[in-house]
Design the sequence.
């Protein structure tokens, strides 16, 4: 998988993360309602917004990998850890029966990205773009 595949994958991951993170960051109450979970207590809104910010920040990282910013491989390692962490948390909560279906779907997407990130990392290091 060479050529335009990896940049397209990482642009897709960036957009995916922005779609997931921006609602939490900008409209946490609406994001909760769309996910089928109770509204956040006012003192907990900041936690949802911080989570949304981190998800969007990873999206920026994936965009940086897509344009072959130096250090992109390290960003992918962090992304892989994050994606697997999401999967582990959702799986644990699934066992308890407390996960909205939308979050299960999102975690399934994260699992697919984790597989792709692992394949990317298993190959030779990619050269950064020449300025």
Sequence:
């Amino acid at each position: 998988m060479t050529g335009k595949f990896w940049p397209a994958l990482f642009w897709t991951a960036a957009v995916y993360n922005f779609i997931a993170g921006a609602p939490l960051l900008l409209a946490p109450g609406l994001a909760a309602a769309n996910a089928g979970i109770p509204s956040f207590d006012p003192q907990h809104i900041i936690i949802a917004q911080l989570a949304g910010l981190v998800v969007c920040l990873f999206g920026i990282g994936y965009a940086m990998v897509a344009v072959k910013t130096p250090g992109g491989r390290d960003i992918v390692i962090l992304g892989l850890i994050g994606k697997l962490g999401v999967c582990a948390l959702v799986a644990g909560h699934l066992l308890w029966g407390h996960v909205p279906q939308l979050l299960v779907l999102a975690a399934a997407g994260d699992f697919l990205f984790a597989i792709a990130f692992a394949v990317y990392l298993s190959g030779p290091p990619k050269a950064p773009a020449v300025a």
